[in-house]
Amino acid sequence: MSGYETPETQDDSRFWDAAAEGMLVFQRCDRCAFVRWPAAGVCPECLDRGYTWEEVAPRGTVWSYAVYHRAYAGYLRERVPYDVALVELECGVRLLTTLTGFDDDVDPMGAAVVARFEAVGEHERVPVFGPA
Amino acid sequence: MAAAQLGGAIRGRTAIVAAGNTAQGTIPGISADELAVEGLRITLAEAGIDKSEIDGLITCKSFGGFGIDTEIGRLAGLNPAYSATLDYGTCNFSLHLACAAIDAGLASVVAIAYGTNQRSAGNKFGHPLGRQDEASVYGFLNVAGPAAMAFRRHQHLYGTTEADLAEVSVSQRRYAVDNPLAIFREPTSVEDYLAAPYLVAPLRRPDLCMISDGAACLIVARADRAAELTDKPVHVMGIAQQTGLRDRQNADQWLRPWIQQVAERIYPAAGIEREAVDALYIQDPTSIWVLQMLEYYGFVEPGGVGEAFRSGAVGHGGRLPLNTNGGQLSEAYMWGFLHLCEAVRQLRGEAGARQIEGLRTAQYCSTFGFMKAASTILSTEAS
Ligand SMILES: [Zn+2]
To answer: Could you read off the pLDDT of A58-109 as tens digits, one per residue?
Structure first.
């Protein structure tokens, strides 16, 4: 099989490792600049395989959010109620996350937000978002 | 390719000749595959069709990977000319595959058999832990999460209220009062709904379906065979599908606007106007799906769902009956199979106390998660 390169297994660990250091990084396509998330071995826009991990601006807006009052898995029992949000980043990625730092009387829908890196449950330093 | 240029116009060529199901609820001690065979047995017996007539078998996987054609064919003692298994067997997709197989001459009488023991198996629809991903880190489990986010987004865009959403489950429950198959049959009200606690805000228990054990089966036949097998064929007029396979890269992922492309195709395929639909069936694992599809298929204006129910445009007692079985919110999840069983029964005049008089045309709209949508138009007449 000369000339055939075994495809690199794509996983998101680079993203989580960077988050632990306070950065948001994604794969950016070397050919068309599309930002991939989750990590993938091929660009869904131009089908090129080349990419570079790049840090992106940690800013976006709240697309929507939901508040879990029920724990659908045991590890979430001590966390309820908790929110889950989808943040639309300036780089185009929509990132699942949680919201922090909003006053109770503020509806965060559509709000401009910026990433903070904090513990969520047992996870150390993952991106969460609060008022910009 | 323009929407109308895609196929799906199968009127006059394919008909449903039988629909049946087991009870729903907790049915311990019987496997999902055995339940599927029990559903097949009941359906054939009720229709007076011998299993030797079947030359096609379509199954779909249930929770835990059960439901493949090779297992069910073996248990049911069938050697059909054609068989297939869908990983995402939600009812419309199985029906469409049956119609396509018949149209291609691969089979002439196709059984669609689905069985599940998700309730006994304790499927909580939680996300598996292990690989660190966003869903597990942030606790984004169960379809209630994306559904809740979709509804809050809808509220943000159109000003929809929780009282508007309440109308969906309240209307459907009114039908379920007359449906012995339904798990939830107690009548409810908008006030009851608003008094219920949140599960995943802004959704409450009445917005989510009940997982059950059970089985359902439909027999689909080429027109000439249908005429031999029943004097009450329900004709499949048109079918249409659209995918959103790019999933999270699609704009407004959980709102699924690409469903509108099915709406563009289904009425030309069936050769009818939307106004000719006498009864509507919308797969409803969550009430949000009803809201979305009423809008995407053009039955109500965006943001107008609550008013459409209150004014009597749609729903129980309204001009357009919707989910006359009570839907998944009252009956059981069953991957949408019971909607199609109900549509067939209504069109045949066999729906008992909840029978709507004078139905000729019914439409069934469904989705598979956030990746596929399908619609079928059924009629008592072949053209
Ligand atoms: Zn590219």
So the answer is: 999 999 999 999 999 898 999 999 999 999 999 999 999 999 999 989 999 9
Phi/psi for A125 (5° steps) reads 50, 75
**Residue ranges of domains in chain A:** 13-131
Token pair 């009445």 is found at B206
CA-based nearest distance A54→chain B, Å: 19
- The CATH architecture annotation of domain A13-131 reads Beta Barrel (2.40)
Report the gap between the CA of B334 and the closest CA in chain A (Å).
Answer: 20
- Counting Cα atoms < 13 Å in the Cβ hemisphere of B280 gives 27
B248 sits in the region (left: phi over 0; alpha: psi -120 to 50; else beta) called: alpha
Structure tokens at B242: 């659209």
Which residues of chain B are within 8 Å of residue A67 when distances are taken between CB atoms? 148, 198, 200-201
**Chain B residues in contact with A110 (beta carbon < 8 A):** 156
Tell me which DSSP letter residue B312 carries.
Answer: T
* Rounded average pLDDT over B8-20: 95
- ipTM more than 0.90? yes
Closest-CA residue in chain B for A123? B137
Reading across the β-sheet that carries A25-29, which strands appear in turn?
Answer: A35-36, A25-29, A51-55
What's the pTM?
Answer: 0.94
Cα A26 to middle of ligand 1, angstroms: 13
Tokens of B283: 């797969």
**Exposed, middle or buried, B41 (CB in 10 Å: 0-12/13-18/19+)?**
middle
Instruction: Let me know how many helices (H) and strands (E) chain A has, helices first.
Output: 1, 8
If we measure between CA atoms, which residue out of A59, A21, A15, A20 comes closest to residue A37? A15
Q: For B200, which of A37, A70, A120 is closest by C-beta distance?
A: A70
- For residue A84, the chain B residues in CB contact (below 8 A) are 138-140, 145, 149
